[in-house]
Amino acid sequence: MSRANVLLLLSGSIAAYKACTVISRLAQAGVTVQTVATPAALRFVGAATLEGLSGRPVFSNLWEEGRALDHIEHARAADLALLCPATANTINRLAAGLADDPVGALFLAWELKQKPWWIAPAMNHHMWQHPATTASLAKLRDWGVRVLDPVDGPHACGEDGAGRLMDPEAIAAEVLAALPK
Ligand SMILES: Cc1cc2nc3c(=O)[nH]c(=O)nc-3n(C[C@H](O)[C@H](O)[C@H](O)COP(=O)(O)O)c2cc1C
After folding, report:
1. What domains are defined for the chain?
2. Is 119 helix (H, G, I), strand (E, B) or coil?
3. In testing the pocket of ligand 1, which one of 8, 14, 61 has its CB within 8 Å of the most ligand atoms?
4. Is 157 designated active site?
């Protein structure tokens, strides 16, 4: 059983339900999973699901009473952060260094040179190929972020192309392999 800590951050993609598989696999392996969700992510999966799978309340509001320093404490405690699914919007926000929500604040509080921050993008293929997204991903990679590249395939919108979230079982396996034993 693992004793590692993972910060699992969700943004608002139709693929958010697949992150539940990742959380479940990590929790089954003994990993402590702290979930973080944008307001849009909580429109796709409920806080009760995230709490039920991880055994901990989701962190989704920087201003919640009693949780004022959570963005620093969660960044300190975790061995690895995984933004899954990563929307175009949140990728662009992180690349701009915006910290007015829990995901952005945690990213800026994270010691990028010391601990892995991974992102698993999921989006329509036009969003994936847009120069704004491409430029932001290049910036994040340059800062040391690992991108778990999406795959080709059908999208929920009916179109086909690159941008489908990598297989959640494979994502969980990659995370487990990277964690301290
Ligand atoms: C049904 C639906 C599905 C969506 N799926 C995606 C998606 O897979 N990837 C993406 O980048 N944006 C997607 N969006 C758009 C985002 O939800 C929107 O840009 C939102 O502002 C993202 O906020 P967040 O990045 O703070 O979570 C979707 C929107 C809707 C209504």
Report:
1. 5-178 (3.40.50.1950)
2. strand
3. 14
4. yes
